[in-house]
Amino acid sequence: MKTLLLAFIALTLTTPLALAKDTKPLRVAMDVPYAPFGERGPDGKLVGFEVDLGNAMCQEITGQECDWVVQAWDGIIPGLLARKYDLIVSSMSITEERRNAVLFSEPYYTTPSLFFTRAESDFDQANTSDTRIGVQRGTNQERYVAEMHPDAKVIRYTTTDDMYLDLTGERLDAVFLDAPVGIKWGKDDPKVVQHGDFIKEPARIFGQGVGVAMRKRDKELAEKVNAALDKLKNNGVYDDIMNKYFDFDIKL
């Protein structure tokens, strides 16, 4: 009887510890559409590079895929700070300004930015006076155009879909955004073409790569996120996901 009692006590003491491992899904915010990083598929479900990578990361941490929350870009950090979700996985560049508000993981990808125009456009980066350039509000690209092309007319958008419609509808002369987004436009629509070379500098604007954002107090979560991303990069899962969406290496 004494032996059975001791065994029961030991079981009740150890079982809660065994269940203490993360099992609750992580709520993860993303701004869509931002193909090929994230968009809604024909069935309404989220698809894209960051969706696949985020789900793989969440699986490593909790054993479940992410609980995705669609959030407009200009409210995505306020939503995190208001505890509407746990993480942001949405092509957020790591900049000093953002570090003042959130805690970042190690960077998990980097891509350059590009100007895109219509095929017949005479857009000239060296002379943008009175040129209509579309950017997404709150992005590094918005800051770059505002600083480097102060003579241009900067048109700010909430979504990249609206930028695409205004570019192809001849209401913009050019757009400036993450290169893979515009490259996908060009693959789907020959009217959209790349203009000029990749732009990655200055670092004070474009940051040090893209990271997962968390609240500053969530240091333990950040350790788990970094460990999961590191494992995915080392076991080949990251490369498999990357090669599904890109023709070039974006891994840091």
UniProtKB/TrEMBL annotation:
Main location: other
Domain Solute-binding protein family 3/N-terminal: 25-249
Span of the signal peptide: 1-20
Keywords assigned: Signal
Superkingdom of this protein's organism: Bacteria
InterPro entries xrefs: SBP_3_CS, Solute-binding_3/MltF_N
Stored Pfam families: SBP_bac_3 (PF00497)
Keyword hit for Glycoprotein: no
Subcellular location: Cell envelope
Coiled-coil annotated spans: none
Similarity comment text for this entry: Belongs to the bacterial solute-binding protein 3 family.
Record-given protein name: Transporter substrate-binding domain-containing protein
Lineage: Bacteria, Pseudomonadati, Pseudomonadota, Gammaproteobacteria, Pseudomonadales
